[in-house]
Amino acid sequence: MNSETVVIGGDGAVGEVLAGQLVGSSTAVVFLDEDERAVERAAEAGADARVGDPSEAATLDREDIGEMETAIVASQKDSHNLLVAQLLRLRRTERVIALVNDPENVEAFAAAGIEPVSASTALAGALDRQRRGVEGVETERSPGQKTEEDATKHRSEHEESTDDPKHERVRSDGAGGDM
User: Which of 15, 107, 139, 158 is least surrounded by Cβ atoms within 10 Å, i.e. has the fewest?
Assistant: First the structure.
């Protein structure tokens, strides 16, 4: 297995910034994005940065993005992140981590064998631990594993209406899109 980490960006600076922060770690960083300016900035930070559409299998094949040790997919669209993460899993990437922008989609990613990272959920958890005076780092659970407290909190946080067209939903079968 290769010791490289691939960071897939897209429609935002998250992937670009992440690639720049990972440069200098013990692994080589490959950054792939369609935005030429983002690729230039990631290259200036020291990443092996390449222009390409990661949601196309041909791009991943052409760029030899395959049996990486770790892949991180970080765009602002959950449907894009899920598609690219699934393509990477098919290419035998050992560990695929994806940004999940809408906490309602975490379970779909976990069901697909992808490690979901939800910034809003992580921040809410950190604030809750701080409020309760709990110090230290919470132990990591396997993807999709929830405690009863998580499930209760999840239900109460998301009882609001989802009729807002800006909310995006992803189904566990990979289909999804803006509602």
Answer: 139
Residues 6+ apart with CB under 8 A from 61: none
CB 129 within 8 A of CB 137: no
Paired residues of 32 in beta bridges: 8, 50
Q: What is the pLDDT along the chain (179 residues), one digit of tens a residue?
A: 456 778 787 766 788 888 888 887 767 888 899 999 989 988 998 888 899 999 999 998 888 876 778 889 998 899 999 999 999 999 888 899 999 999 999 999 999 999 999 988 888 888 888 888 876 544 344 444 444 445 444 434 444 434 444 445 555 454 454 43
Show the tokens assigned to 120: 């809003």
Conformation bin of residue 24: beta by default, left when phi > 0, alpha when psi is -120 to 50? left
Residue owning tokens 């935005």: 35
Q: pTM of the full predicted structure?
A: 0.68
* Residue that is written with structure tokens 């690639």 in the block: 19
Query: Which tokens sit at 51?
Result: 């222009």
- What's 73's DSSP letter? E
Q: What's the chain's length in residues?
A: 179
